[in-house]
Amino acid sequence: MQPTKKNKNVSTARWKHILSERVQQLPASEFDQIMRISKENKNVISLGPGEPDFDAPKPVIDYTAKMLEAGKTHYSSTSGLAELKEAIAKKLSKDNRVHVEDPQTEICVTAGSTEGLILGLMTIVDPGEEVFVPNPGFLAYTPMVDLVTGFAIQLPLVDTDGFQLHPEMIEEKCTEKTRALILNTPSNPTGTVLKKKVLEEIADVIVEKDLIVLSDEAYEKFVFGKEKHVSFASLNGMHEHTLTLQTMSKSYAMPGYRIGYIAGHHELIQEINRIHIYTSLAPSTANQYGALKALQLPTSYVEKMRNSYAKRRELMLKLIHQTQSLHLAKEPEGAFYMFPRITEGKTSQQYAHDVLNRAQVLVVPGNEFGNKGQGFVRMSYATQKEKIQEAFERMWEKGF
């Protein structure tokens, strides 16, 4: 893997005058290469990609097939199947303490929560307006803000503080042009779970500055420490200030289904649906039925995954603490990631490149998640315990 570069010179002279400035300014990412290596090279142990190693629940697969056989191959409404939105509303109420008065007007089903995020940004951000993003944070946040011609204001997070987000960061950097905050708990890539007290303090700033929070809760089911997941919209007064983004990809091991949803005030969702018509029109109908079946399953399906991840987390924590080249200042409590600091003085790219070439182990360079991720790597424990153990033994054998 080579160091990340800006994408300005991606095109030959033949195409440069055709490609938009928007696409030429997007940062080049190594993530596609990482995904390809992890799936194609059988000798490499991948601690890289961020998707469950479980298959979708069999009842979900069977029901999806049944719906296809039944002819459910036509468009749904733009905002999604009515019965799916009803099920999502019940789930939000039961699991997240987020009240949805009218599921048909307050929920939009999307092609994963990633589509929900960019639809939300397109709805509330005008050119030049500002959006707070965590740094390090999910690699799509800043490019998405760029794509809607907004300006991403980086909120620098540090490992010695457990990558916690503090309200004064928002307060100090807020201007008349600031419109929104992207909030991610549990966090990709750091595994941080924000404390309820911190979220309540952030909520006070959000009200004072009249901002919208895009609350990315993709890993809500995977919390392992003493903290519990708190949905931002469940906090007092936050319903009108929050767009809640959730997905079937992680909690139900259905990333290939590409089904997520966005929930919020009906006037915001109404405008999101207007944009949705001109993007994907509607998600896959059959896959929406699969999502409906998943939400009807006993909690044991999710608990089985969570318990497995908990054991793998304990193993990876132990192994990182035994690895001279890596250091964890605080133990992450959520998602299925570790984000250790490199102690050798190498850049993230150099370390990931060396580990891949010498130990045949794939990790993700931390700078993929923002410049504050430089000097770190992301390691996923969404792989079998035996593979995690072998990956670290390979690294130790090669002197890491």
From TrEMBL:
Homodimer. It comes from Candidatus Iainarchaeum sp. GO terms for molecular function: pyridoxal phosphate binding; transaminase activity. Keywords: Aminotransferase, Pyridoxal phosphate, Transferase. This is Pyridoxal phosphate-dependent aminotransferase. Residues 43-394 form the Aminotransferase class I/classII large domain. Its cofactor is pyridoxal 5'-phosphate. The lineage of its organism: Archaea, Candidatus Iainarchaeota, Candidatus Iainarchaeia, Candidatus Iainarchaeales, Candidatus Iainarchaeaceae. Belongs to the class-I pyridoxal-phosphate-dependent aminotransferase family. Belongs to the class-II pyridoxal-phosphate-dependent aminotransferase family. Pfam families: Aminotran_1_2.
